[in-house]
Amino acid sequence: MAIGGWGDTDGLSHGASTNAARNKFAKNVVDAAVKLGYDCVDIDWEYPAGNGADYKQIPNANKTQEINTFPLLLSAIKTQLKHHKMELSVTAPGLKRDMIAFTKQHTPKINAAVDHFTVMTYDLMNRRDNVTSHHTDVKGSLDAIDTYIALGVEPAKINLGFALYAKWFTTAAGYNCTQGLGCPTELLEAADGTDTGKSGAVTFEAANFQAAPTNLTTSTDSSCGAGTFYKCPTGNCCSQYGYWLFSGATEAHCGNGCQADYGICNGTSTTTSFKTAIANGKTDEVRGGQWYWDPAGPFFWTWDTPALVTRKFNDIVKARGIGGVAVWSLGEDSYDFSLLKAIQAGVKAWPKK
Question: Is the pLDDT of residue 353 over 70?
Fold first, then answer.
């Protein structure tokens, strides 16, 4: 049972704040896990001590106490889980700039409290960056794993994270990004910390590779896009989020990410560009990442391939003796399951302990 996720920090912050709050939070979590029949609880706090979705509203300077309270919260949860022979895991950031709570002093305490330590070795480039780089390359992933090992996390507890999606970023107008890495981007995050709509992700689900159905009907409830049989009413655009932002005529609907097969779009649709990128991707053999720059966007794309998954098993999992792997998320590779098959093959080839 996972608790937290991007943008969900308030409850964890309050739950960790005092001894009484930690004990109450731990009891509520364990009671729910027992009632629902789970065998493990995962704390996905993004992120303790700052740099979360609310970092502009609540500065990191106001969260320094969480460096101390985070391991105490984990310990309180683990204490109660032991009574039910259940495990505790933590999901940890892959970027050093977000590892604020994972200090040399406190990481061993975190390690002592958990059974599993899943590292988000993806989204290593995100909307807070302004220069293109891989979001889940071998080199960046290994750097993250090595950082945690150096901080005191037992390799056998670590899970290497895999992403079942590609990410795209709008490069700066007029810049010829033929080299892929190191290109300036448009502003990806606004001054208040919100998304500018100039970056996003596309999963490897079957719907994102297929042409739109030929029997589309006009939506009556504003739902549209890949995975549906609905197009927008005339003059409207289908946003990249389909079900969530629906049809409309605003920049959020018609700009980057707009689904051209289901309505009108301003400029190049990322759904169209995605297919171009996958068909023409280039491998960075040095850092171990796949990329493509589409000048029509202009969009920089970054993702993993089965060959790079295999390389991660050899260069990271086996080389560092780490304990497991994880994916985000399981249903996002339904086109041909090639990444999941490569992960499965890597697990099967694992030396038995």
Answer: no
